[in-house]
Write a structure and sequence with these properties.
The chain has one domain: Alpha-Beta Plaits (2-Layer Sandwich). It is built from four helices and six strands. It has helices at about 35-50, 75-95, 95-100, 120-125; strands at about 5, 10-15, 15-20, 50-60, 60-70, 110-115. The strands form two sheets. The chain has a four-stranded antiparallel β-sheet with strand order 4-5-3-6, covered by helices on one side. Strands 1-2 form a two-stranded antiparallel sheet. Helix 1 (about 35-50) crosses helix 2 (about 75-95). The chain is elongated. It starts with 5 loop residues before the first strand and ends in a 5-residue tail after the last helix. The mean pLDDT is about 90.
């Protein structure tokens, strides 16, 4: 896959993140038809904020997202918007979720950066900037 540098008024970037989060108590509540509706909601939120969805997989007890996100926007803000809006919408459309969980999502999430180079290559690049 070719790396594409994106730009905005302030910077050039290529930032992708693997984000994983789960329902409160890791309950297996993300099943049909909730999972399909959740996919739609997540896609709408990502598009609304001008970010990029590369891949998404919803398991009964957790979600994997591969997203591209502007550094100034921040992956933390994107996850916050996804979790907040999806919880509100799903609990409104599927009242049984309110009875199973006091809140839909845990407060935490896992976030991993995705890149074309290893940490060692970047370390060497930074070390050699002054011609060491």
């Amino acid at each position: 896959m070719k790396t594409e540098l994106k730009t905005n008024n302030n910077n050039a970037y290529n930032c992708h993140y693997h984000v994983v989060f789960c329902p409160k108590y890791r309950r297996s509540v993300l099943v049909s038809p909730i999972d399909e509706r959740l996919k739609t909601i997540i896609l709408e939120i990502i598009e609304k904020w001008g970010q990029e969805l590369v891949e998404m997989e919803i398991m009964p007890d957790h979600i994997h997202l591969l997203v591209g996100c502007e550094p100034q926007f921040g992956v933390h803000k994107l996850v916050k918007y996804i979790k907040g809006a999806s919880s509100f919408q799903l609990r409104k459309e599927f009242p049984e979720l309110k009875h199973k969980l006091s809140s839909l999502w845990t407060n935490s999430y896992a976030c991993y950066t995705v890149g074309d180079v290893t940490l060692e290559i970047i370390k060497k690049y930074v070390e050699n900037q002054k011609g060491k």
